[in-house]
Design goal:
By secondary structure, this protein is mostly helical. The protein has 5 helices and no strands.
Length: 114
């Protein structure tokens, strides 16, 4: 699963930026749609898509434009970095587990000159 996580996270952030640049009204529509969901579904959406929903909340806040952009960029970088490091730790864990499960290598044959 970890090999899939980082590309999905990057694609979601690229989609977010694309929508932000080319159709920012869709961000507003998405925010209103999330708020209109029944509470249980709204909580589920918040949990599953937390960084993106937080970014929608930030975008629709009354903060200065520069602060909103800065916090959304930091959120995106943290999310991408977090999913990358999680995948890296998973690969390292698998390597260590594989190495620990290998039988010991046979001793090297004695050299001819000894």
């Amino acid at each position: 699963m970890s090999r899939v996580t980082n590309p999905i996270v990057i694609l979601l952030w690229l989609a977010y930026v694309g929508i932000w640049i080319f159709s920012s009204g869709l961000l507003s529509d998405t925010w209103r749609w999330i708020q209109a969901l029944p509470t249980v579904w709204e909580v589920i959406v918040w949990i599953v898509f937390l960084p993106w929903v937080v970014s929608l909340w930030i975008w629709h806040s009354s903060w200065p434009l520069w602060a909103r952009i800065l916090v959304i960029i930091v959120t995106a970088i943290a999310t991408i970095g977090g999913s990358s490091s999680g995948a890296r730790h998973e690969r390292e864990r698998r390597r260590a587990k594989t190495a620990a499960g290998r039988p010991p290598e046979p001793p090297a044959p004695p050299s001819a000159g000894a």
